[in-house]
Amino acid sequence: MVLLFATTNLLFSQNLSFIYKVTSLTGDQKKSSKTENYFLDISGTESVFRSEYDRYYDSLRERTGKGLDTPLDFDQLYSRKDKSKIYKTVTVPLVMDTYDIFIEEKLNWKLLNDMATVAGVKCQKATVAYGGRTWEAWFGKSIALQEGPYIFHGLPGLIVRIADTDSNFIFSLISYKKITGSVFFPPKKGKALTFPVFRTLEENFYRQPFAELERSGLKLMVTDENNNKMSWDSREMSKKMQKTLKEHNNPPEIDYRPHFK
Questions:
Q1: What pLDDT, in 10s, does the model give residues 150-164?
Q2: Is the separation of the CB atoms in 148 and 159 below 8 Å?
Q3: DSSP state string for 218-233
Q4: Counting CB atoms within 10 angstroms of each CB, which of 60, 104, 177, 198 has the fewest?
Q5: Three state DSSP letters for 141-209
Q6: What is the mean pLDDT of residues 121-133?
Q7: 69 Cβ partners below 8 Å, 6+ apart?
Q8: pLDDT for residue 139 is more than 90
Q9: What pTM was estimated for this model as a whole?
């Protein structure tokens, strides 16, 4: 896909939205992949990167006060940047507790001499180590924004494409638009945690995924494929949730990947 950027007008627009196609491999065995669109919404010195699905629920929450849906795993790429602070935001499955993980790891970019046209933009190549992976990025100086998908930032131009060297995650810019009015929906925010503490939280959840819900006294129910009510079997449902968590245990930050046994 070719992108034609009206650079001058773009840079003086207050609110911008860049759409990326994100392809990721799931689980330790990397047997399956998924592809979905993510939005990098920029307003002044703030930005938020979220899936089209999360963006919809953020807008719903802004309008109605409700809108959080239940994720089924920790395989989430929701992040936001506020001036010099970068956060990865994760919502715990089922219980819906949301946490902000402050990204302390510095991105020490290495600029290379390689040049290429990517999505119609003249780009330069750069590499960086982050989260236990090596990443290769293509950025366009003609789009003078030190921004990019997910937590990536700090290059002298917008990151048009970035992927880790094993292609577990591929972020590719496909389009952009100016945002008018209040379309820049407030992002989710949660309780601050570090990666090591959050990894412990994930592992505890894995061992007993329904414990908190059962302690709350809520009446839990499950239905079959025909929407018929079935009796609640905590052990069987826990096994199914644990299987899902294992199958999606391939975060960008493999240095902090939880141990699901």
A1: 999 999 999 999 999
A2: yes
A3: ----EE-TT--EE---
A4: 104
A5: CCCCCCCCCCCCCCCCCEEEEEEECCCCEEEEEEEEEECCCCCCCCCCCCEEECHHHHHHHHHHHHHCC
A6: 98
A7: 53, 57
A8: yes
A9: 0.88
